Inverse folding.
C-alpha cells in the first residue's frame, strides 16, 4: 500500500497500516490528511514510544482518529510466529488516550492460541480484539493456520463478553 | 544458590530455580534427587523447548514435581523490565502436562502492571500466579518498584477469582 | 521517501532504501522499474532471507543493480545503537551474487567504533563500507555522534586499504 | 560444572565459564578464590555491562586473571547459530582493561564462517581468538558443524598473523 492507493479506500471506515508500514512516514502523513479512522499496527521491532511517534505523524496532520494495535513482536522465540506483548495494553493506556486493540491471530500464528490470547487481551483491558476468521481455514489463500472458523469465533466472542462483564 | 545449599531448604515446600539458573544443569540434577516441588523459571533468553529440556534434567533423576514459570523474556523493548510472553501458557500446556505459573511482577517490573497482567494470565489458563508483595514497597530492600501492597494483593486476588469462575 | 519522489533523484547514481523502508514493497517495485543502482539496507528486525526477498521485489521488475547493506539489527544490547551483524557478509555472499556493503556508523552509533568496525567488515570480505563523515560532527544537524571527521576518514581509508591488500 | 568440580582442574591453566554459567554467581565467587585464569564467556542474552559485573564477582574475591569472551548473542536471526557481536570488542576495551577474546565457532555455528569472522575479530582488535578444531569434523561427537580441520586452522592462523602485522 502507498499513498496513491488512498482513493481506493473512499468507502471504507477504517484503514489499516500494517506492521511493515508503521514507519512509512510519507504514508502516515498522507493518512493524517484524511478523516478516516486509522488502525496503526506496531512494527515487529518497534517500541511503544516509536508506535506513539508514528501515531503523531498521523495526528499532527489533523487526523486524530487513530487506533493502536499490538500484533506481536519479533524475538528469539519462534515456536509462536511472533511474541504477543500484552504489556503493551498497559503501557499504551498509560502513555496515551488512544484506544488499543490486540491481534492475537498475527501474533501467535496459530488458530488454537487465538481464543486464550483474545481472552487474556480482554482481561488486561484491551479496547478491542482483531481476529482472523475464515469459513474454511484449510483452503485459505493466506494466513489459514491462524484463522478460526465462524463457529470458533462465536465461542471466542461469548468468552470475551463474559470476561468484559466481570472486569 | 548451588547444590551445596540444599540442606538449608529442608523445611520448605517449594524450591525456586531462578531464571539465571535455568540451565545450571548440575543444580537441576541435584534437585531431581530430592522430593521437593521445584518451581523452574524460564530463562531470559530461553525458548519453550529449552525450558522443557531443563525440566527433563530434574525429572530424569526421579523428581516429577516440577512447576514451570513464565517470568518474561529479554527483548528490544525496555519500557517494561522484560516482555511477558503469555503465549507460553498455551504452548507449554500443549507440549507438556506440567503446571504453568506466571510471574507478572518480575516480567513487567512495575507494580501498576501486575494487576492487569495477572488477570490476563488467569484468563489464558495459567495454573497459578506468583506476585511480589511488600507491606511498604517504597522501603523494600529490592524489587520495590514491582511489589504490590497487601491491600492491592487482595484486590488482585478478588479479580482473579472472578475471572476463574467465568472461564 | 515514497515512489512519487523518484523524479527528484534523476541525476543521482545510487538510490538508498533505508532500513525502515526495506519492506515497503510498493516502493521497491517502483525502484525496480528504474535503472538506478539501489542500495537496499537491511531492516532492523529482518533476516538475511527477508533482505533477499526484498531485493527480489526490485529485480523482478527488471532492475538487477542492487547492493545489499548490513547496518545493524535491533537486539537487547543498547550500549551500541544497534548490533552490527558481520556474519551477514558471509551469509549474503553465500546466498547471492549481489555485492554486500557494511555501514558501521548507523550500526554502532558511535564515531570511535567506526574505524575498528570498518576494518572488521573489510577483513571478512565486505564489498564496500559506508561511513558518515562531517566536517564538524559536534554541529551536525543529525547523526553527529556517529560521524567521523575528514581526517579520521582518511585514517580509516588507509587502514582499510592495507587490510584489503593482505586478504 | 559447579564449584565441587574445581579440584578436577588442578593442573589446567585456564578454566572456562560457559555462556550458560555467566550468571552462576556462586560458581564465580568460588573461581575468584582460585589463582587460575578464568575465561568468562558472555551469556546469550547478557549485555556488556552484565558481563563486566560477572567479572567483578570473580575479581572481588581476589582473582584478577579474567579474560572476557564474546561468543555470539541470541537474536531473531537463526541462519547463524547466534549473532556474533564484534562491537563487544570495542565496548569492552573501552569499559575495562581486561583482555577480550572472540569465539567465531560457537557464534556462527558454521565451519565456513569461522575464517572470515576470525579475521574480522582480529581486525577490530580482539586480544585472542578461540577456534574449535577437530581432525575429522564429520565424526565429532558434538559441535562438528562448526569445527575446522587442522589444515583449515593453519590457513586461518596465517591470515590472522598477516592482519595483526598491518594493524
Amino acid at each position: 500500500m502507498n499513498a496513491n492507493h488512498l482513493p481506493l479506500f473512499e468507502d471504507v471506515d477504517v484503514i489499516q497500516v500494517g506492521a511493515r508500514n508503521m514507519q512509512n512516514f510519507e504514508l502516515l502523513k498522507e493518512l493524517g490528511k484524511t478523516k478516516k479512522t486509522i488502525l496503526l499496527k506496531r512494527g515487529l521491532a518497534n517500541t511503544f514510544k516509536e508506535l506513539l511517534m508514528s501515531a503523531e505523524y498521523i495526528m499532527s496532520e489533523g487526523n486524530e482518529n487513530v487506533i493502536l494495535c499490538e500484533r506481536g513482536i519479533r524475538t528469539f522465540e519462534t515456536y509462536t510466529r511472533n511474541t504477543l506483548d500484552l504489556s503493551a495494553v498497559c503501557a499504551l493506556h498509560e502513555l496515551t488516550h488512544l484506544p488499543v486493540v490486540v491481534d492475537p491471530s498475527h501474533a501467535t500464528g496459530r488458530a488454537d492460541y487465538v481464543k486464550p490470547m483474545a481472552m487474556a487481551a480482554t482481561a488486561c483491558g484491551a479496547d478491542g480484539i482483531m481476529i482472523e476468521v475464515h469459513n474454511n481455514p484449510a483452503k485459505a489463500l493466506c494466513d489459514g493456520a491462524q484463522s478460526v472458523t465462524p463457529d470458533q469465533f462465536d465461542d471466542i466472542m461469548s468468552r470475551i463478553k463474559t470476561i468484559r462483564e466481570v472486569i
About this structure: The first helix of chain D runs from residue 25 to 32. Helices of chain D lie at 25-32, 48-59, 87-95, 104-108, 111-123, 150-166. Chain D touches chain C through 39 residues (CB under 8 Å). The beta strands of chain D are 14-17, 37-41, 66-70, 100-102, 128-129.
